Amino acid sequence: MVNLRDRIVASFNKGELRALCFDLDIEYENLHGETLLEKSTELIAYCLRHGNLDTLIEKICQLRPQEDCRQLRADQHEAQNELNELANQSDFFWSRAPSWQWDVFGREKNINDLYRLIHQTQQGSGARLCVRGAPGIGKSTLLARFLFHDRLPDIFDGVLWTTLGQTPNIVSLQREWLHALNEPGLYLRSPTEIKGQLQRIIHNKKILLVIDDVWQVSHLKPFMIGGTTSTLLFSTRGRDVAAKLSIPEPNLYHLPELDLKSSILLLQYLAPNAYKYNSSRFEELALQLEGHPLALKVAGRMLEKRSWIRHDLSETINQLLDPISIMEREVPEDYRDLSEGQSHKVLSVFEKSIQDMNKDTQVRFAMLGYLKQKPATFDIEALDALWDGRDIEDTLLELIERGLIESAGNRFRIHALTKSFAQKLQEEI
Questions:
Q1: Which CATH number is 108-254 given?
Q2: Directed axis angle between helix 2-11 and helix 53-63, to 10°?
Q3: Could you report the per-residue pLDDT of 240-278, keeping only the tens digit for each?
Q4: Across the beta sheet with 158-163, what order do the strands follow?
Q5: 342-428: which CATH number, 3.90.25.10, 1.10.8.870, 1.25.40.280, 1.10.10.10?
Q6: H/E stretch holding 294
Q7: Cα separation of 98 and 92, whole Å?
Q8: What are the structural domain ranges in the chain?
Q9: Helix or strand or coil: residue 162?
Q10: Could you give the CA distance from residue 4 to residue 72 in angstroms, rounded to a whole number?
Q11: How far apart are alpha carbons 240 and 243 in whole angstroms?
Q12: What pTM did the predictor assign?
């Protein structure tokens, strides 16, 4: 699919792509994404799903006779084969499958790490594994892509997958699993009853149970239904949920930020037109945003939109060099599930981590916004001065548990975007 997508991007601008969609009776506005790259990807995916990729190729050959149609046909077959491989995996998903994630850069190592971890622990012992990381770091994206790993069917009979969030409807989500397993269970009313029925159905199966965005152990337990042959994999922000479940340290996978090369590739993918005229500034921006996927996505989409108006985006890039400017921006569509119908600003993604935090702890967290060094690392002695010796260790542990800071030996780190949230919090306190 990548080869065909790249040929379309090289041969059509956005206006021409819109006209192509009109000729094919496809609603351009209904294609997900904003950039030419995203629209082209979705156009191919749409044609694959509706069985009219042939028509798309024929139309491209008519409009762009200079293109090598034989190569286009080869690219078509390649894209069709990719779809067939995904279709062959559909039986592997016993519940609904997550959406395929296209804009994933620099996560190959993390995906392979996670596979090795699962392969090592899947020894008939009912393993429990946790992916943790800061708000917006890409945990959900990683899990969604990981579940399409071509070797998972070698280990498991199937996957049951769901996303919880802060206020999950436990019974409704459990019923989705029952329905996926062809068990209506309408007579079952409580989470305990449904859990028991699910347990009876899959007790002797090798199931990968994947629970995304866990906030409380009490939310997770109704989905812990596997026997000794199944594996539980869940994602959460901090260490608290894993600690309460006594997850051993080797079974905790911390998802880091993207490296510099992957950060630039993500920006380039999201803002190809902006990159043409401002490529020399993209490395500077990627460094300043410290590889945070959410910040990079917001910045990339903003740059591409501004490139429709002007080529020189120096002023916009200068604004984005201050991560605090990211906080008031809208989150991308693929992060909207994090905001649960409320605010769609980046700020709202971070506000969830302090919703039930007491006021004194919020104040101490906000004071971390005063840290000047980049990256913002510190030790306990620095906190003693900053917090005036008050409840240092207890506060530090709570912030680590909530995924707001990371520990590394005797030092601690707060990401640039999280520090910007602390600075915004200062305005409210």
A1: 3.40.50.300
A2: 30
A3: 999 999 999 999 999 999 999 999 989 988 888 899 999
A4: 158-163, 207-212, 231-236, 128-132, 252-254
A5: 1.10.10.10
A6: helix 293-307
A7: 12
A8: 2-88, 108-254, 260-321, 342-428
A9: strand
A10: 7
A11: 5
A12: 0.77
